[in-house]
């Protein structure tokens, strides 16, 4: 007979796509904590072994084979009497590749469950799995719904996976997910969870990953809801977090009362997302740090603050590429900003390089074309400087700069940020920073930059592109 207390360890962690050995090591580390906490089950996010999103990596037979070997090794290690492990992995079976969750317990792969509801990208990579019943862990019947399996869209072919799990005897729904951050996306997640709980009358645990991968960032913000829709637990956003929850069986089923973190939202969440994305883009791709073109404009100031928060000032290098269109006050402001953030900076004149290009041309350029030439010279030099030191060139353009081609770099933290939001984010950073930010506290961006209208146009006299 199952016990009346069931302990689940939630591992809200940051995998790296393709780093199977590194991701597997994180599973082992989380299981050690779960074992110390006396947990019955450790849960990790969707496709954790391969890293999410895996994209075409999972179509490589060597990757699939390495993932299978990792799962088999973890399964053997579960013979120690410690907690069972529910972990996401690609799985090849009967000639098809599935987005799977493997239950590892008592030295074996005790069960496999395959994702049923696949988004468009998922259908290109994976076969759709059949809706299946719950898995048994220490006598408790756990329904496994992976990612979109808790969503129902009447315009699509999505099945009600949770309904099937409830009808086949599930006592608790667990949802390993890999869902990117979008502003306001937390409401959509909660709405889907509430709908499934209302239908099934079962509590639900939703576990998301953290970290940046490619052009996506994952916010974690995992949660659990009791069957009465009360919040059982809320994990923080944008940080790794491993916690063990004690679920108690009562007359109305399983319930839990755990820590409820206050989530950041709005501009704070947008800022934190960009810091995490930049940090992981640098770390997961092996860059030594970043190089940023300093312009004396608010976009450059905000990007520099984000870089210092992501990596620490000592891994950020500011470069003032002074040219014919940059005023001395703008240059002075750029250097002052770097000092305020503790970032090393230097001034490199580019007038001679621009003149060399102009000498090659058969005639003089119009004003707009010359502005573009200066921008391209700056961008080329910035990329070259970054390459010399193994660093990443960070562009400083916002959405308005993108329209006129004024952003050059290997990463653009403000590429989807409007000029108005740039001002809001800069003002925000002067009074707040993310809990894990490595940059200095306080007013790091000059108030006069925030008060001055942003200028992404090619007519700006002191514009300089990163």
Automatic annotation (TrEMBL):
Region of interest (Disordered), ranges: 443-466
Keyword Cell membrane included in the entry's annotation: no
Gene3D superfamilies with a match to the protein in the record: Carbon-nitrogen hydrolase (3.60.110.10), HUPs (3.40.50.620)
GO molecular-function terms, A-Z: ATP binding; glutaminase activity; NAD+ synthase (glutamine-hydrolyzing) activity
Keywords assigned by UniProt, alphabetized: ATP-binding, Ligase, NAD, Nucleotide-binding
CDD domains: GAT_Gln-NAD-synth
Location of the CN hydrolase domain: 6-250
GO cellular component: cytoplasm
A Pfam family it matches: NAD_synthase
Source species, domain of life: Bacteria
Catalyzed chemical reaction(s): deamido-NAD(+) + L-glutamine + ATP + H2O = L-glutamate + AMP + diphosphate + NAD(+) + H(+)
GO BP annotations, alphabetical order: NAD+ biosynthetic process
EC id: 6.3.5.1
Biochemical pathway: Cofactor biosynthesis; NAD(+) biosynthesis; NAD(+) from deamido-NAD(+) (L-Gln route): step 1/1
Keyword Ribosomal protein: no
Similarity section: In the C-terminal section; belongs to the NAD synthetase family.
Protein's recorded name: Glutamine-dependent NAD(+) synthetase
């Amino acid at each position: 007979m199952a016990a009346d207390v069931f302990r689940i360890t939630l591992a809200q962690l940051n995998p790296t796509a393709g780093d199977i050995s590194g991701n597997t090591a994180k599973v082992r580390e989380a299981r050690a904590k779960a074992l110390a906490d006396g947990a019955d089950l450790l849960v990790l996010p969707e496709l954790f072994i391969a890293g999410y999103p895996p994209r075409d990596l999972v179509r490589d037979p060597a990757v699939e084979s390495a993932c299978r070997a990792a799962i088999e090794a973890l399964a053997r290690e579960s013979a120690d009497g410690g907690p069972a492990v529910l972990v996401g992995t690609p799985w090849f079976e009967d000639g098809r590749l599935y987005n799977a969750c493997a239950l590892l317990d008592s030295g074996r792969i005790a069960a496999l469950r395959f994702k049923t509801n696949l988004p468009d990208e998922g259908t290109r990579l994976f076969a759709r799995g059949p809706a299946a019943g719950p898995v048994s862990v220490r006598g408790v019947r756990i329904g496994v719904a992976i990612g979109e399996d808790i969503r129902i869209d009447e315009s699509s072919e999505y099945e009600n996976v949770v309904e099937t799990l409830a009808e086949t005897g599930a006592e608790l729904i667990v949802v390993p997910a890999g869902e990117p951050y979008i502003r306001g996306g937390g409401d959509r997640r909660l709405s889907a969870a509430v709908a499934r709980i209302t239908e099934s009358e079962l509590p639900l645990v939703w576990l998301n990953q953290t970290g940046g991968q490619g052009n996506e960032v994952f916010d974690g913000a995992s949660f659990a809801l009791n069957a009465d829709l009360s919040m059982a637990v809320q994990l923080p956003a944008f940080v790794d977090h491993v916690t063990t929850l004690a679920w108690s069986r009562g007359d109305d089923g399983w319930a839990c009362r755990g820590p409820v973190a206050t989530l950041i939202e709005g501009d704070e969440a947008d800022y934190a997302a960009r810091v995490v994305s930049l940090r992981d883009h640098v770390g997961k791709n092996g860059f030594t740090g970043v190089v940023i073109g300093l312009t004396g404009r608010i976009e450059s100031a905000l990007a520099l603050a984000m870089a210092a928060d992501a990596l620490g000032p000592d891994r950020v290098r500011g470069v003032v590429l002074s040219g014919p269109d940059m005023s001395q006050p703008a240059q002075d402001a750029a250097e002052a900003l770097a000092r305020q953030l503790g970032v090393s900076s230097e001034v490199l004149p580019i007038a001679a390089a621009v003149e060399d290009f102009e000498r090659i041309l058969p005639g003089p350029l119009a004003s707009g074309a010359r502005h573009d030439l200066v921008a391209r010279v700056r961008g080329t030099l910035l990329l070259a400087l970054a390459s010399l030191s193994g660093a990443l060139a960070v562009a400083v353009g916002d959405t308005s700069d993108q329209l006129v081609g004024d952003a050059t770099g290997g990463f653009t933290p403000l590429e989807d940020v409007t000029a108005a939001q740039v001002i809001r984010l800069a003002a925000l950073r002067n009074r707040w920073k993310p809990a894990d930010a490595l940059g200095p506290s306080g007013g790091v961006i000059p108030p006069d930059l925030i008060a001055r209208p942003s200028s992404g146009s090619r007519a700006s006299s002191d514009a300089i592109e990163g």
